[in-house]
Specification:
mainly alpha; 3 helices; 0% strand
Length: 94
Amino acid sequence: MLAGSMQWMLEAARIEAGGLQGLLRVKGLSAVWIATLRAWEQDDSQDLGPTMAALDRALDKAERVARMLRLDAAEPPPASPPPAPSAPAPEIVT
């Protein structure tokens, strides 16, 4: 049930959740959710600071792993540099 819920959340955010990459995204989001839930269960503070800190840590870790695996949909892989111009552009006088 957890995987299905996380897949739905990814798709609702318009992040591909199918195939092998989608499966890895589902597992990553599940890990973030579980880490945050564990912190929330122990958090008795009114501002939920420890829970938010755990969420931030889990998201940072997930982002690092996604970049390493190139699963970060928000950041495409680096493109090759543009070709160098062959001659300078003519100067326009107004």
